[in-house]
Amino acid sequence: MKFILALLSISSIFCIYSKSVDALTKTLYDGSGLPENDSPQWLTPGALLSSGFPTTLAGTAVAGGVQVDSNANSAEYSGYSNYNPLTSSFVNSSFPTLDQNSGYSIFFNVALDTANDFSDTNNNNRAAFSITAIGAGNEGIEIGFDGDQIFAQNSNFTQAETQSFTTSNSTDYQLAVSGNTYQLLADTGSGFSSVINGSLRTYNFDPTASNPPLDNIPLVGSFNPYEIPNFLFFGDNTGEAYGTFTLGEISVETVNVPFDVSPTLGLALIGIGIGVRKLYIMRSFRRNVQSRQRRGTA
After folding, report:
1. pLDDT 10s digits, 106-120
2. What distance in Å separates the CA atoms of residue 58 and residue 66, rounded to the nearest whole number?
3. What is the pLDDT of residues 252-293, one digit of tens each?
4. Please, are residues 153 and 143 in contact by the beta-carbon 8 Å criterion?
5. Which of 82, 211, 280, 289 is geometrically suited to a Cys-Cys bond with 3, CB 3.0 to 4.6 A?
6. How far apart are CA 234 and CA 43, in angstroms?
7. Cα 153 vs. chain centroid, distance in angstroms?
8. DSSP, residue by residue, 124-170
């Protein structure tokens, strides 16, 4: 009986040091009002002029989300992020870790209401709306939404995986990341289906060469979002395209990874089990000897 109780004690130790694999979902924006008014707040609005100076984001609360005119107030960059470059910190310090090894998904709703490209030889590589997701290991993916297509950005910011798509409809998307791959899925009315997929990138971004440059932001200096682990951005991040988009509900789903028992702890538990087993055998042997001795005396 004591042997069984000891084994149960060892099993309880394993239970204490182990966790089930669970998907943890965090709502960053519920699609009502403005994201900056949420409590707790997860996303902050931001807009930059061509000079690098901040300006006011032109965001208006509408049914199902916030509508942003990325060309208003002479802005070049306009959108929402979980990171504030002016404070060099995340909007919420409890933002979940985007661990590509265990996997994560970003769910969002967006409609690209209007999209315009400036006359530029590189305008096919730019989009009025993009989602940028950089994981904890600094690998990530940026996906652009143009008027009639969705495409991923190569590490040098040229078009990679591309798919024709009607981006003007309000659509639920899922950006799923696992290992070194990503997949963008869209729900067009009959469940989620794949739009584009490929490998994650390490982006070669030069803040001095971007349009507009990001090397002289007041109180910040140079800013490279592609080097910030767990970075998210939703909006217009180029001066070579602009438009109006309606951003709806956003959530992040991460995986609660099981606790890995260390070799030291594992060996210690095995040693305890062996020791308890030996003790049980010795006690049983002694009881048997004493029993035989009593029968011989009688």
Report:
1. 999 999 999 886 545
2. 10
3. 999 865 544 444 544 454 455 555 455 555 565 566 555 555
4. yes
5. 280
6. 10
7. 18
8. GG--SEEEEEE-TTS-EEEEEE-SSEEEEEPTTSSEEEEEE--TTS-
